[in-house]
Write a structure and sequence with these properties.
Blueprint lengths: L1 H18 L1 E3 H8 L3 H13 L4 E3 L2 E3 L9 H5 L3 H14 L5 E4 L3 H10 L5 E5 L2 H7 L5 E5 L13 H9 L3 E6 L3 E2 L4 E4 L2 H12 L1 E7 L11 E5 L5 E4 L8 H6 L4 E5 L2 E4 L1
Length: 262
C-alpha cells in the first residue's frame, strides 16, 4: 500500500509538471480513485511544498524560492540514483573531488561512498556524512555558519575554502537551467560556491535531473558550456537543441543502467 501511495505521488507530480495544473476531478478519474483519496495525496504534497493548492486542484509552487531540502531529497529519487550510478562509473579511485551543495551531489556521494583512496573537499554536511564511515576517504569540510535546513555552507566562506585547493574533479548541482543554457540558482551564495568549485577543479561535472530544464530560479551563474561533462537522466528538451549540438559528447544521459552520450 505504501509503495502504491508513493507511486501515485510521483505520478501526480509528473502530471502537474507537464500541464502546470491538474484538477482533483481529473486526477481521481486518472487513478480510478475517489476525490477524497486524491485530496489526501495532494495535501501531503502541498504540505511538503511540492505542489500548491488552488481552486479546484493543484499547480506548481511559486518558484521564487527553492523547496525545503527534505522535500527535494524525495523528489525524482530514481532519476538521481541513475545519475549517481553514471557518475560513479565515470570516476576512478584515487582522485580528489570537490562536491557541492544540493540533493543530486548527495546521491552521487552515496554512490561513491564505498570507493578507495578518495580525497573529498566539500561544503555539504550530507556529502561528508555519506563518506564518513569509509576510512579510505579523506574528508575536508568548509568551516563557517551552517545553513541548518540545507546543511551546507555557502557564500564568501565557501568561495575562499574551495579556492585553497585544486581538485581533479568538481561535482555540483544547479537550481535551474535556462533556455539558453544559463545556470540558475536561488541564492547568490549558492552561485558563489558552485563557481568556486568550477574555477578550482580540472574537470567539472554538472549533475541535474530533467526537472531542472527551464526551471525558474532567479540568480545567474555560469553556463552549461562551462562544464566539461553534464550528467542528466533525459535528453535535453527541444529548446536546448542548439546547446546540445554545440556540446555533443559532453552530455551523458543516464537511462536505467546505461549511459549514452548525447
Amino acid at each position: 500500500m505504501f509503495k502504491i501511495a508513493t507511486e501515485r505521488q510521483s505520478r501526480i507530480l509528473e502530471i502537474v509538471r507537464d500541464k502546470g495544473f491538474a484538477s482533483i476531478e481529473h486526477l481521481a478519474t486518472h487513478f480510478d480513485v475517489t476525490q477524497q483519496t486524491v485530496r489526501r495525496i495532494v495535501n501531503r504534497l502541498c504540505d511538503q511544498g511540492l505542489l500548491r493548492r488552488i481552486h479546484g486542484g493543484v499547480s506548481l509552487p511559486v518558484q521564487n524560492q527553492n523547496l525545503a531540502y527534505g522535500s527535494r531529497q524525495g523528489l525524482n529519487p530514481g532519476a538521481k540514483r541513475r545519475i549517481a550510478r553514471a557518475v560513479s562509473g565515470f570516476i576512478p579511485d584515487g582522485v580528489s573531488l570537490m562536491i557541492g551543495l544540493g540533493t543530486t551531489p548527495e546521491y552521487v556521494a552515496q554512490a561513491l561512498s564505498h570507493r578507495q583512496d578518495l580525497r573529498v573537499i566539500t561544503n555539504n554536511l550530507n556529502v561528508a556524512g555519506a563518506f564518513a564511515r569509509n576510512p579510505n576517504v579523506e574528508i575536508t569540510m568548509a568551516g563557517g555558519t551552517l545553513r541548518a535546513f540545507d546543511r551546507d555552507i555557502i557564500g564568501d566562506t565557501a568561495e575562499r575554502f574551495f579556492s585553497g585547493f585544486k581538485a581533479d574533479i568538481g561535482i555540483f548541482g544547479v537550481g535551474g537551467i535556462d533556455e539558453d543554457g544559463t545556470l540558475l540558482d536561488f541564492h547568490f551564495g549558492e552561485v558563489q560556491a558552485r563557481q568556486a568549485i568550477l574555477a578550482n577543479c580540472r574537470t567539472a561535472l554538472l549533475v541535474a535531473d530533467a526537472s531542472k530544464f527551464g526551471r525558474n530560479a532567479t540568480v545567474r551563474g555560469g553556463h552549461l558550456g562551462d562544464c566539461h561533462h553534464f550528467f542528466t537522466d533525459q535528453p535535453l528538451p527541444p529548446h536546448l537543441d542548439p546547446v546540445a549540438r554545440q556540446y555533443a559528447g559532453h552530455v551523458h544521459i543516464a537511462s536505467d543502467d546505461r549511459v549514452d552520450a548525447a
